[in-house]
Design brief:
By secondary structure, the chain is mostly helical. It has helices at residues 6-30, 36-55, 64-89, 95-102, 105-116, 123-139, 141-144, 150-173, 179-201, 211-237, 241-246, 250-262, 269-285, 291-297. The chain has 14 helices and no strands.
């Protein structure tokens, strides 16, 4: 197995985590220039097509006749549900809070792999799951009291659940598809579905074709869809899965920091308390003895997304 130098591996991990953490506030920022589904659809199609152009020399690895159901199902969960619901939900919650709730995903992955793939559920994983769910309850207290949108919390949970299901499904079918082609094709398919839904339910003329819109669109398509996934898969292929997993907790922290200081989003006591519990739960299920399973589930692009995430 090819090995990266410590410096290259560290830079790669830092790049991925920074992109994943920064993309949520940027998506929130983009909503002032475009309806959510149209933005998500255009971004997905652009990112998927650009990655396809890069992958064309290896087009034989698509194997469409044999693997098309995998592309469609992955597109539904990892792109339509994760990216589409994400953009809709960001209209109702601050980006930092939304990210914290969505990043319950590693906990949901552990639960789904136990139920679906029959993987071992250790005491540490079970405790991590309970702490993670408690963190979401604390984060959601203000929704129950009416201070923040209950609908936004529900959509964030759906986003995380869709991401988790997509992750586990990709894990189950990973040997049948090429990882990068999966990223490209699922974004094209999912992007067109979201664009079509946006054309049917949103006002295309509401898009403001200005520089900030183009900047956020290209950042999402190039950095989030292509570069972060390419670096992430490279790190996975050279055995850096555990290191990436150990820094996953930084993603919601970065998102909260950017949302608070650059977008002026509120930083409440319940957000802080819930975030700490969720991050601790991620630490527990990603610790040395349990990290490998959780991280490998993400290797074929979960966040990822989509989203990454």
């Amino acid at each position: 197995m090819e090995k990266l130098s410590t410096t290259k591996a560290s830079l790669g991990i830092a790049f991925v985590v920074l992109i994943w953490g920064s993309i949520w506030p940027i998506y929130k920022f983009s909503l002032q220039f475009s309806p959510p589904l149209l933005y998500a659809g255009i971004r997905g199609v652009i990112g998927g097509i650009l990655l396809t152009l890069f992958l064309l020399p290896r087009w034989q690895k698509i194997q469409w006749k044999k693997t098309w159901p995998i592309y469609l199902i992955s597109a539904f969960f990892n792109v339509v549900i994760f990216n589409g619901i994400q953009m809709i939900g960001l209209q109702y919650l601050p980006s930092g809070l939304y990210t914290v709730i969505v990043y319950l995903q590693p906990v949901l992955v552990v639960l789904l792999t136990w139920l679906w793939l029959k993987e071992t559920l250790s005491a540490k994983k079970a405790i991590g799951m309970l702490i993670g769910f408690l963190g979401v309850v604390i984060v959601s207290i203000e929704g129950i009291s009416g201070k923040i949108s209950t609908l936004g919390i529900i959509l964030a949970l759906i986003t995380g659940l869709g991401w988790a299901i997509g992750t586990v499904y990709v894990r189950k079918t990973s040997a049948m598809v090429d990882n990068l082609w999966l990223v490209a094709i699922q974004n094209i398919i999912g992007g067109f579905i979201m664009f079509g839904a946006g054309m049917a339910t949103e006002d295309f003329s509401a898009i403001q074709w200005n520089l900030p819109f183009f900047w956020s669109l290209l950042y999402g398509a190039i950095f989030a869809v292509i570069l972060a996934n390419a670096v992430y898969l490279k790190l996975m292929s050279v055995g850096e899965a555990s290191k990436v997993g150990s820094y996953t907790f930084l993603v919601p922290m970065i998102s909260v920091f950017i949302g608070t200081f650059m977008l002026g989003e509120p930083f409440t006591v319940s957000l802080f308390g819930g975030m700490i519990l969720i991050l601790f739960s991620i630490y527990l299920i990603s610790s040395k003895k349990t990290r490998e399973t959780t991280v490998e589930l993400d290797v074929e692009y979960e966040r990822t997304k989509t989203a990454v995430k």
